[in-house]
Design a protein that fits this description.
Blueprint lengths: L2 E3 L2 E6 L1 H7 L8 E3 L6 H4 L8 H13 L5 H11 L5 E6 L2 E5 L9 H19 L3 E6 L3 H9 L6 E8 L18 E6 L3 H13 L1 H6 L2 E2 L6 H4 L5 H9 L7 E4 L6 H11 L6 E5 L4 E3 L5 E3 L20 H7 L11 E4 L3 H15 L5 H12 L9 E6 L7 H7 L8 H6 L13 H10 L1
């Protein structure tokens, strides 16, 4: 598979370059250039196909022009010591849980895969990379875990003062680990601004092998496309007709990844999502994408520090904008509808939903009229409900127990080092690596 930019379709690069460079020079985002037909892989999977096996097979199908099937299988096997769980709630409703990784958050999948892929690339081709990301705690914890034992990848993680957590002393670079956590004497916005400024100096970023672990990086996004074939392998013998996925949009990475899976020939009929300011519904219930009114050439460069995948969503539907109406179903929701959906999930199915899952279910209920009567829905639960104690207690009245690994990921970490005040100090740390 080759990759191009959302803003320059004459560009064509391989997987390694797209992942290591993370941001094309034209200010766009990397996207697949060509559509692979993965039908022969997807349709022959079943409930006995393991998650890591499916991920390895699809990795091979994606990047077989660069790496052998054995290498691709190795990337997936080393990345995934955990797997999604699919539960059937009733005849037409399924739940896909993505919080089975060490931090109880769905991002564990993409970060673990990306770290494994970059480590493998450097083992084969030489060189090294440095992740430069901003974190309020969650991303940094997942990244620190994913980098344990890696030889060719390190990370500089930028935090607002007091936000570091879930990182062990053995993870610190100065103790032989792979992570340099940096506290900034300032706001989260200032942290993002520092990272943006560094990536804007493209020569500096390339010279020091900088990349990102967020979904601006196509290597973080692609493994999220594996969720949907995996769900299909588990439910295809149980559903007679259409399959819809209902999820909270976040930064739209899971929606875009699902659309990539559809382009690769996965049977999939659409996404039901709560409306946001960026992607809402008009009076007829059709999706309205606010950014699309601004031409690409007049936009700011894509953000490496705090990414949105709406530009990738536009790219999927660029050849046929009307097609979006048949694949994306945004639902405007009230707080009352979300609370009611949370209670219904618990009463009917004994599910403890966090706010994201409750919103997704509320959207599903609101858009029932859009579905074929025989259609089925997969509700996606991204993160552990134990991480949303206030919402769950408010709607359900009790909170599920928290796994020990999640508790560890929330523990405050002290580095014993002074905060930095400006981007020059951050660049100095990167140079030391």
């Amino acid at each position: 598979m080759r990759f191009t930019s959302t803003r320059n379709k004459s560009l064509s690069v391989g997987f390694s370059k797209a992942v290591l460079e993370c941001m094309p020079a034209d200010g766009g985002l990397y996207v697949p250039l060509n559509t692979e037909d993965l039908r022969r892989w997807i349709l022959y999977t079943d409930e006995n196909t393991s998650w890591s096996s499916l991920a390895g097979t699809l990795t091979s199908a994606f990047i077989n022009d660069e790496f052998s099937p054995i290498i691709c299988e190795t990337i997936a096997t080393k990345a995934f010591k955990f797997a999604p769980e699919i539960r059937q709630l009733d005849e037409k409703l399924f739940l896909m849980e993505l919080f089975n990784g060490p931090t109880g958050m769905h991002r564990d999948y993409g970060i673990s895969y990306l770290a494994s892929a970059i480590e493998t690339i450097h083992q084969l081709k030489g060189g090294s990379s440095v992740f430069l990301d901003v974190s309020k705690g969650e991303l940094g914890t997942s990244l620190a875990i994913a980098l344990r034992g890696k030889k060719h990848v390190k990370a500089v993680i930028v935090y607002p003062k007091g936000a570091i957590r879930g990182i062990k002393e053995s993870d610190f670079v100065w103790n032989g680990g792979n992570v340099w956590p940096v506290e900034v004497d300032g706001t989260e916005k200032q942290c993002h601004d520092m990272v943006r400024e560094i990536f804007a100096e493209r020569d500096f970023a390339l010279d020091h092998g900088l990349t990102v672990a967020n979904t601006a990086n196509i290597g973080r996004l692609l493994p999220q496309a594996f969720f949907y074939p995996f769900a299909f392998s588990r439910i295809k013998q149980k559903v007679p007709a259409d399959i819809f996925y209902s999820l909270a949009p976040g930064n739209y990475s899971n929606v875009v990844a699902g659309l990539y899976a559809w382009q690769f020939a996965l049977p999939l009929n659409g996404f039901v999502i709560p409306s946001t300011d960026a992607l809402s519904e008009d009076a007829m219930g059709n999706p309205v994408l606010l950014d699309s009114i601004v031409p690409l050439e007049k936009r700011y460069p894509a953000d490496p520090a705090e990414p949105s995948n709406l530009e990738r969503l536009e790219d999927v539907f660029s050849t046929n904008s009307l097609l979006m109406r048949h694949f994306v179903f945004p639902a405007s929701l009230s707080e009352k509808q979300i609370d009611s959906a949370a209670k219904e999930l618990f009463v009917k199915y004994k599910i403890y939903p966090d706010r994201h899952t409750a919103s997704a279910y509320a959207a599903c209920l609101a858009k029932k009229q859009n579905f074929d009567q025989d259609g089925s829905t997969v509700l996606i639960a991204r993160d552990s409900p134990s991480l949303s104690e206030d919402f769950v207690r408010h709607t359900i009245g009790e909170v599920p127990p928290m796994k020990d690994s999640i508790k560890e990921s929330l523990m405050k970490t002290r580095t014993g080092r002074s905060e930095i005040k400006d981007v020059c100090e951050l660049k100095s740390i990167i140079q030391k690596l």
